[in-house]
Write a structure and sequence with these properties.
It catalyses: dTMP + ATP = dTDP + ADP. This protein is α/β, with parallel strands linked by helices. It has nine helices and five strands; from the N terminus they run E-H-E-H-H-H-E-H-H-E-H-H-E-H. It has a single domain, classed as Rossmann fold (3-Layer(aba) Sandwich), CATH 3.40.50. It has helices at about 15-30, 55-65, 65-70, 75-100, 110-120, 125-135, 150-160, 175-190, 200-220; strands at about 5-10, 45, 105, 145-150, 195.
Length: about 230
């Protein structure tokens, strides 16, 4: 059975990485698989940028504020670097795992490029669509969980972490608002993109995600025949 690609998307401070790992733990502990055809598929996690050895190097260049002070990255160059990361990621990691029947949980995918480089940076959306098609080789996500919250709340959460901001997090508030507007526009056109209110406490967010996943799992993995 072909695997499934579940993507976590959203702006800064939404808790994507935390909720992704919580979902993995929940899936591995779930009794859902006992009465399902094919049993329990492996669950793997990954991220963009940085899901491969090449991607890790590109991530350091794209997000490291110390590097960006030394290496100015033009907006179109940034777009192409993200596309290169995705092409390698799909070929080396995502496609092989999907072909093995795995559940792939990915922190960011094509919607982030549309939201950040398209709506945020103002690059041509048609060009981004073409690059995404090339980079993904047609591999689309089966479900996108959009962790959405007010920009000011998200950025304040990032500040409270006490960590150095990366290149994206250092953008002005208007930049991040355009990104949120971008995700809103994408969700309106993408039926498999589910909006999750990420302003709530982590346990409530996790429960919402689990309810959504349970519904999709029932569609993807039919129950065993009753004799």
């Amino acid at each position: 059975m072909q695997g499934k690609l579940i993507v976590f998307e959203g702006g800064e401070g939404g808790g994507k990485s935390t909720q992704l790992m919580r979902l993995k733990d929940w899936l591995l502990a779930s009794s859902f698989w006992a009465q399902r055809q094919g049993g329990e598929p492996p669950v793997v996690t990954t991220r963009e940028p940085g899901g491969t050895a090449l991607g890790a190097r590109l991530r350091a260049l794209l997000l490291n504020t110390q590097d960006s002070a030394e290496v100015a990255i033009a907006n179109r160059s940034e777009l192409l670097l993200y596309a290169a990361d995705r092409a390698q990621h799909v070929a080396e990691f995502i496609t092989p795992h999907l072909e093995q029947g795995d559940l792939v949980l990915c922190d960011r995918y094509t919607a982030s490029t549309v939201a950040y480089q398209g709506y945020g940076r103002g690059l041509d959306l048609g060009l981004i669509k073409q690059l995404n098609q090339i980079a993904t080789a047609g591999v689309t996500c089966d479900l996108t969980l959009w962790l959405d919250l007010d920009v000011s709340i998200g950025l304040e959460r990032v500040r409270q972490r006490g960590e150095t901001f990366d290149r994206m997090e250092t953008g002005e508030v208007a930049f991040h608002q355009r990104i949120r507007d971008g995700f809103t526009a994408i969700a309106a056109q993408q039926p498999t993109m589910v909006q999750i209110d990420a302003a709530r406490d982590p346990d409530t967010v996790a429960a919402h995600i689990q309810a959504v996943i349970q519904e999709y799992l029932q569609q993807w993995y039919p129950p065993l025949s009753q004799n």
